[in-house]
Amino acid sequence: MDTIIVGIDFSKGSDCAIDLAIDLANRWGNQLKLVYVLSTKYDSALMSDQEINDKINEVIKRHESKLHTGKLECIIRHGRVYRELNAVAEEEGAWLIVVGSHGTSGYERNWIGKNAYRTITEATLPVLTIRENFNFNKALEKIVLPLDSSMETRQKVTHAIKFARAFNSEVFVLGLYSSGVADVRNIVDKYVEQTEKVLVASGIRCSVSKMETENVTQTTLEFAEQISADLIMIMAEQETTMSNILLGSYAQQMIHHSLTPVLTIHSTDLHGAAR
Fold first, then answer.
1. Residue 239 belongs to what domain range?
2. Domain-embedded: residue 79
3. Segment 226-264, tens digit of pLDDT
4. Which of 115, 124, 132, 224 is a plausible cystine mate for 13, CB 3.0–4.6 Å?
């Protein structure tokens, strides 16, 4: 049975991460493991071991009845949050890490949120980040799949199919033109066409849009907001534009600014989607 890892820090964001991870685990028959990382620099000064254990037990009691695929357990580790989350994921043979994120302002005290992007950069498996304002009144009905001219961009498609089948989602393919060079634009067109064919052949409902952009993050987020998206799928590696250089990587910008859950995939993650 495959495993999903959830990083917790007792914040509202990590509570949302647990709830979404439980939904995923129930749909796919996965095991679920919570991970709390004790950082000696902060945690021991704020809470005693007993207080930490009490909080963990409260979290488990609050969520355990929702999980239908096994017992809800929490692993306690010591060290840096992002390193320990990835270490546990590797030890448990996990295919997905789920963590809460807080954006560029607010909740700086929550360690998981602060380490969301570092968790992604250290990971070799997909990482799903979620804000505390996530709408649980509906499933992941609309998935945004942005495509650029990078070779890796299509590797999101396998994951999109996996999620779309589980939630009966519609996939919104978004071709992003960040260059006026004809050859580059033709590559985007080809990737969009190939992706649409694969989705249709897989029985996935989909639609296609194409947009000019100077900032792929801003364009993707505006499109997601326009369609009331429930999930955005991105690659950790994207084509580089001037806005990326000035504002940080595409993945970093997305994690910091997206109010919609973001699934970040590495080019080495394809084995996970096939499970």
1. 142-269
2. yes
3. 999 999 999 886 555 444 444 357 778 888 888 899 999
4. 132
